[in-house]
């Protein structure tokens, strides 16, 4: 929603001719100014009024819009992942790493999606699970999901870390796979990569 500010500035001439008496009315929103200049020319017998409307739009090309909290959060996570030398791989590269270097594919999609199809020898530990409890809060969350047409609402899996530790060796080399597929690789449109649902 744009906020508008209206200002009126009056200039007057006190010369004996009273030749020019301009006034300025301006309206401003977050990046534009629109103004109307009225000038009156008095010759003693008659007055002439001239209305001139001028607009000025200022584009904020030199500045970037503020980042959302989610974007700032991703920036911090991405820096940490880069420090730990985590990188993105495509499906072909993941398969090669699995076969040649004994990487384990950890599929973090919901169990139902995993059962439909998954990479060979992948291990499933869902990072998000269907809402399990039936407290008043959970019923309200289910209703909110249903309002938007989502009848299988999910929540973070509180046992995710423990399940991963139980299923994988501590020194295992892991490829994390999900359905959203984020990337650490920068591009022209995504200079900081893109966060997946997993991150």
Automatic annotation (TrEMBL):
<dbReference type="GO" id="GO:0009507">
    <property type="term" value="C:chloroplast"/>
</dbReference>
<feature type="domain" description="Rhodanese">
    <location>
        <begin position="99"/>
        <end position="182"/>
    </location>
</feature>
<dbReference type="InterPro" id="IPR001763">
    <property type="entry name" value="Rhodanese-like_dom"/>
</dbReference>
<protein>
    <submittedName>
        <fullName>Rhodanese-like domain-containing protein 14, chloroplastic</fullName>
    </submittedName>
</protein>
<dbReference type="InterPro" id="IPR043186">
    <property type="entry name" value="Str14"/>
</dbReference>
<dbReference type="Pfam" id="PF00581">
    <property type="entry name" value="Rhodanese"/>
</dbReference>
<dbReference type="InterPro" id="IPR036873">
    <property type="entry name" value="Rhodanese-like_dom_sf"/>
</dbReference>
